[in-house]
Amino acid sequence: MKTATRCVRPESNGDPFGAISPPIYQTATFRQESVDEFGEYDYTRSGNPTRSLVERQIADLEGGKHASAFASGMAAIAALTRLVSTGEEILCGSDLYGGTIRLLDQVVQRFGIGVKYVDTSDLDSVKNAITPQTKLLLLESPTNPLLRISDIEAIASLTRDSDVLFAVDNSMLSPCLQRPLALGADLVVHSATKFLCGHSDVTGGAVVTNDPQLHAQIAFHQNAEGAGLAPFESWLLHRGIKTLDLRVERQNNSALTIAKFLTGQRIVKNVYYPGLATHPGFEIHARQATGGGAVISFTTGDPSISKRIVESCTLFDIAVSFGSVGSVISMPCTMSHASVPAALREKLAPPSDLIRISVGIEAVEDLIANLENALENTEPLSAVAASASSRI
Ligand SMILES: *Cc1c(COP(=O)(O)O)cnc(C)c1O
């Protein structure tokens, strides 16, 4: 069945009363029949039926056999890094989510694990960066916020040859638009806070894989470290996923329309959106995904102009995050990517005039009118300032 159907009609939730909305097993512990008879669940940190339900739903959508749901995307990525031991090395894309860079740089490295950044859009660089110590390669495609594209299938064949685990952070597209496991990745990681949940009311994360041994390791750490998704959050996430395909379809279509609109604006310098034929990764992206997604970045050449545009977009909330039903606008350099350590800022931080928008499900005409208004309001202001100063 198609994704849209599988989002709304996951397996039966097994409720004895036929409840269409599954019950929330809001319990920390489960009664045993006797001291030596164990049921399927004993303690919610180790497993909970509501969490299992959403885990199976996410695994199914990603085309994987197993998923583990976590309290946030970062908790999921932290669990992923537990596959790597002291003395080994993580190779990762050079344009990652700021929180991931913070985790790798300020936490993971303290435990004697090497972290190397490489431009994963360049296959030769990836090939040359792999060493006998490399255990895990983690990338995002498209990256956030610069929307760079990496060839997932080609990288999967490189990592397979060199015995490196290959994980793709698929938060930017969701399984409706891209399924990295089918392209050869060993693991998919999600910030479920973004598209999967879709309503900005849950933080969650997931790790998906087809490999039962990798799953066992991830599930072991989920239990050992206690970062599993709580029952109520699992239920909210399960509910959010029902509309995932519908939301993503609208958001993806509107984003393409807005990216084209932005491309024609005088005040806009560069538009980064992998659904545009002018994007350098367009062809690779079109091969491995069925849409450009909902996130668009663009520059104006001047951070103060960008700031004024952001602050004039009244239909877009100024907020970090993306993938929600409501459109948001941000300046990654001072917002989501402010957590990139100062020493890495120069190399890894996005341009200071970069504006990122995440397109929601509002009518695209309203969003464009709002953006147009913000762009127009900004232009005269700078022209007025120029003419005022020339008079002095
Ligand atoms: C938001 C995000 C994360 C972190 O997820 P949280 O749910 O905020 O912890 C990781 N990767 C990407 C690509 C993200 O956008």
Q: Quick one: biggest sheet?
A: 7 strands, mixed
Adjacency order of strands in the biggest sheet:
1-7-6-5-4-2-3
- Uncertain regions: pLDDT < 50 for 5+ in a row? none
* Order of SSEs: HHEHEHEHEHEEEHHHEHEHEEHEH
**Can you list the ligands bound to this structure?**
pyridoxal-5'-phosphate
CATH superfamily of the largest domain: Type I PLP-dependent aspartate aminotransferase-like (Major domain)
CATH architecture of the largest domain: 3-Layer(aba) Sandwich
Tell me the Rg in angstroms.
22 Å
Strand content: 5-15%
How many structural domains does the protein architecture include? 2
Helical proportion, percent range: 25-40%
CATH fold group of the largest domain: Aspartate Aminotransferase, domain 2
Total number of helices:
13
Name the shape in a single word: globular
CATH class of the largest domain: Alpha Beta
N-to-C CA distance: 69 Å
Overall residue-averaged pLDDT value: 93
What would you call the structural class? alpha/beta
